[in-house]
Amino acid sequence: MSTTTRTHGPGRGRERGQGRGQGRGRGERGPLASIGLHAGLLLAVAVSLFPVVWLVLTSLKPRDSWLSAELRLFDHSSLDNYVRVLSATEFPRWLLNSVLAAGLTMLGGVFLAATTGYAVSRFRFPGHRSVMWLLLITQMFPVAILIVPLYNLMAGLGLLNQIPGLVIAYMTISVPFCAWMMKSYFDTVPVEIDQAAMVDGLTPFGTFWRVALPLARPGIAVTAFYCFMTAWGEVGYATVFMSQEDKRTLGVGLQQFVGQHWSDWGLMTASAVLIAIPAGAVFLLVQRHLVTGLTAGATKS
Amino acid sequence: MAVSTGRVAAAGEGARGRHDRPGRLRRALSAHWYAWAMIAPVVVVMAVLIGWPLARGVYLSLTDATEANIGRTIGVNVIPATYEFVGLDNYLRILTSGLFWDKLAWTVVWTVVCVGLHYGIGLGLAVMLNRRLRFRSVYRVLLILPWAVPAFVAAFVWRYLYNSDYGVINGLLKAAGLPAVGWLDDPTTAKIAVIAVNVWIGVPFMMVAMLGGLQSIPAELYEAAEVDGANAWQRFRAITLPGLRQVSSTVILLGTIWTFNMFPIIFLVTRGGPGSETEILVTYAFREAFTGVRNYAGSAAWGVIILLMLVVLAIGYRRTLRSQGDPW
Questions:
Q1: DSSP B111
Q2: TM segments (chain B) (predicted)?
């Protein structure tokens, strides 16, 4: 799965081919194709980066300069918007709520997903297929069908405007997919290791806890991260369950900055950067593992 | 995988030193009890958090429950629920309304176009990235970036980009001497706009999944095909596409379900507007339940219909894959 195994530049291969006097070697391409390839990728990179770059640039503009339709990249750059977001709005409060909700979802989600993923990956027990199928089916649940009963349930239990209530709702979204991801990871851990551990006298649970779990550590990190991001980016449940001002999460709170009648893009962009940058940084750190986890199961089976 | 796991189970039994020959049920129980114990938490959580609300949702969809009659507790006063069972009325009303079919048509267009573009662009980029290439990992990281942006942040950012007065897209159009477009004010452009946002967000996932799939295809196959004189297109058709089947079928099904239910993009970028032109089934059902007089029963009925459609889709899809020999 490593992507760095084939790092020869195109140049080297071509030299070799020409050295033997055969023109282009197998799998090599002409300069024109290379230019086309790079042009295509550069275009794609431009599209993928532009909104993010523009977001950062706007957030650095002075308070009202987003009101001008002129395209200026830098224009009295300042951290004004950031200061305003952090000091004059409820942003820090929302941030705390979001971190709490996402963090708790992550803990519960990983615990449940790890055991399920392991069982489904290692044991062919009756019902194994239906469990995976059940998990996939729950991915299909639209917000609309669960949200009303869940809302009533939460209201009945007094969990509206409570972080735990939100966490419970988030588990319904994150656990199924995370179980799939954990299964993929456990599939990549050689079964022989488990067998050796069992021969040495560990119980199946002992094997899971002491052998498989430590080996799947990168997988757990990624699953945890994915859980966190799911909760972090959720809007539907949060909008309905957390109506109280001081209980809002970021996704709900930010809607205030760009309402129907009044928008402050300065506040919005600054807070968007504050939310996206840390998440993006961690994401880029774990993305290599994320790739493995998502595809290993699908490509192997 | 299936073969080796049998051995694990056998090893587990051996380790516990069994000598007796129990009956079939007991054998199954003793061979599988730990597997069942390990999935029990998830099954229980799913049953409580999804099964129960689902059952109640289905029940609510057969009643006339609204905010007014649902029954609630205000302080110490308990107001009992007064809604009644009305059978399939809600479903009849929805299925006979033009609105539902309008929304369904747009939701299908939205899903097909989005997933098609996700898959096509993702596969294209993955194939490009799977070559020997200078700056390969740089391209890869930069192309994954949109995935790292939380959906609601992306929605707000794009709303700003689309803004008709201050948005940079119109700014660029004006700079090029073209008239500004009221992106989110016109049904057609608003639809294009939300699709563009969703494609922007969704392509990295597809690209990454495809890249993983491509790297699992043995290079020898390509070498052999080249020796046999197959051109690039033939190699793509005969090796790449079949090699990606497993990954493709998974991500297309997941992508379809996710897109069909994609809530935040539409909810936050256009709020379903203009009018309710960009509203997909899910956002409409949400709006039904939580704006104006909250029509819980109606919303639940919409939800049940959406779910049924997806289940039918998934079962059909699974059947097709199975008949083609995939181990689903």
A1: H
A2: 33-55, 104-129, 141-161, 192-214, 251-269, 296-317
